[in-house]
Design a protein that fits this description.
Layout: H1 3-14, E1 24-25, H2 27-37, H3 39-60, E2 65-74, H4 87-90, H5 98-117, E3 123-137, H6 140-206, H7 212-247, E4 256-257, H8 276-282, H9 284-304, E5 310-321, H10 334-337, E6 338-347, H11 355-421, H12 427-462
Parallel strand pairs: 1-4
Antiparallel strand pairs: 2-3, 3-5, 5-6
């Protein structure tokens, strides 16, 4: 059989799928559904939303904070302090030695006033509004905003990486399923051919032209092919369910997939740039690691900021009335009970048990771990790239070998059939020739699957996928 006919036949078989009533997905449709429904992508999308919220939250720390407080309380263990009375007013100015009493009364009046200011009443009402603006916080506000932005960028890159991974997994599973679908077709065609041979041998055996051994061999071939078909169908179901799982869909027995594999002999790929300079720009892993390194570096600055002071500008307006009763409300009396203030606050930790120093040490340790991971990732990607290139070259070699095997197996079957029909070749040779051609076709298809996987792996390794 001519080479081009064999190759055409092989790829026609690759495109065949059993006719079913359920939904049929192409590779592009499978990838699209997976990008929408995959759980890993949905998780990555939620991380992006969370990161966006963290950026807005970080900006919020740069704005002033305004707080409202309202309190109505009952205090136990104190006597009511009357604003309108004082000890000095209760003294008799005509009494002898009253001057000393006036001096003592003045002191006690201050105590009374202090109790009033401290809300020394059984019932009390407090309403206040406070506003604070951080003027300086060791750079934590601006640095925290930068970290939030870096984390958002990291989350977006992780989402892109998750999409690439899902697409790669769908393509790999899809190609494997197409191979198994086509393998089922080949097994069924081989069984049909073997059945014809068995029918012929059965008639010849009944007429005494062949022996029982030939009939047994023909029957064993049917059994062997049937066993291989059942095993392949089981693998087909598992592969289908694995692909559906990757797509984020429930298992469905009636679903099928339609498509073919790239023909290495007809597909003329443009091989990607394999230089590390190009790969560093395109691989998401480098972007992720660089973002992590930047984030940990900023975290070191935040921890170092604890050695610096915090400066806050604030102001408040408060109303407090301690003369209320549970059954009597004499608010607001604004002039007597309202207070206003503006303040500038500076706080600085002088000693916290060396916690700041150890926090800085831990932050620097995390930074160094990120740098080590980045260095290890580059070595790993170099190895991945080298492996992908070698695998693709091996796959191309295997394609050429498997193509020659199909040619030789086809010619061998033609010659064996001709010799067997005139009695010059035993039946065993004919069975072996059929098996060799079937195996050659399966091996060729497997080599095509390997080549497609190797080419996709090369695109992924170089960041072109």
């Amino acid at each position: 059989m001519p080479y081009y006919l064999i190759l055409t036949l092989s790829f026609l078989i690759l495109g065949l799928v059993p006719a079913v009533a359920g939904p049929v997905y192409t590779k592009e449709e499978a990838i699209k559904i997976a990008l929408e429904k995959s759980s890993s992508i949905q998780e990555a999308e939620q991380s992006v939303k969370s990161a966006s919220a963290q950026v807005d939250q970080a900006y919020g720390y740069a704005y002033p904070s305004v707080d409202l407080s309202v309190q109505y309380a009952r205090t136990f263990g104190v006597s009511d302090v009357q604003k309108s009375s004082s000890i000095s007013e209760m003294l008799d100015p005509t009494a002898p030695g009253v001057m000393n009493d006036y001096i003592l009364g003045g002191v006690l009046d201050g105590v009374t006033y202090g109790l009033n200011a401290m809300k020394g009443f059984r019932w009390g009402t407090q309403v206040g509004i406070t506003a604070n603006q951080v003027l300086y916080a060791q750079g934590k506000v601006s640095t925290g905003t930068k970290i939030a932005k870096v984390y958002k960028n990291l989350s977006q890159t992780s989402l892109e990486q998750a999409k690439i991974k899902v697409k790669f997994e769908v393509e790999t599973a899809f190609d494997q399923l197409i191979y198994l679908d086509s393998a089922v077709v080949i097994f069924e065609a081989s069984i049909a051919q073997a059945q014809k041979h068995l029918d012929f041998v059965t008639k010849s055996f009944e007429s005494g032209l062949v022996g029982e051994l030939d009939w047994i061999r023909a029957q064993l071939q049917i059994d062997e092919l049937s066993s291989g078909l059942e095993s392949t169908k089981k693998k087909q179901v598992l592969a289908k369910n694995a692909l559906l799982n990757t797509m984020g869909l429930p298992y469905e027995s009636e679903v099928s997939f339609k498509g073919d594999l790239r023909d290495p002999n007809e597909f003329n790929p443009s091989y990607p740039d394999t230089s590390m300079q190009s790969i560093r720009k395109k691989r998401n892993e480098f972007r992720l690691l660089e973002a992590s390194e930047e984030m940990y570096n900023l975290n070191v600055k935040i921890e170092q900021g604890d050695y610096m002071p915090t400066v806050v500008l604030g102001g408040s307006v408060a109303y407090a009335n301690g003369a209320n009763r549970w059954h009597q409300w004499d608010a607001p009396h604004w002039k007597d009970n309202i207070s206003k203030k503006v303040y500038l606050s500076l706080t600085m930790n002088l000693f916290n048990g060396l916690q700041t120093r150890e926090n800085i040490t831990m932050a620097k340790t995390e930074l160094r771990k990120a740098q080590i991971q980045k260095e290890a990732a580059e070595r790993g990607i170099r190895l991945e790239l080298e492996s992908a290139v070698n695998t693709l070259e091996d796959a191309k070699t295997q394609i050429a070998i498997r193509t020659r095997q199909i040619n030789l197996a086809s010619r061998n079957l033609e010659l064996t059939e001709a010799a067997y029909s005139v009695g010059k070749a035993p039946q065993l040779d004919l069975l072996d020739a059929n098996m060799s051609l079937r195996n050659a076709k399966l091996d060729y298809m497997s080599a095509v699957v390997d080549w497609n996987a190797a080419y996709n792996a090369l695109l992924k390794a170089t960041g072109e996928y």
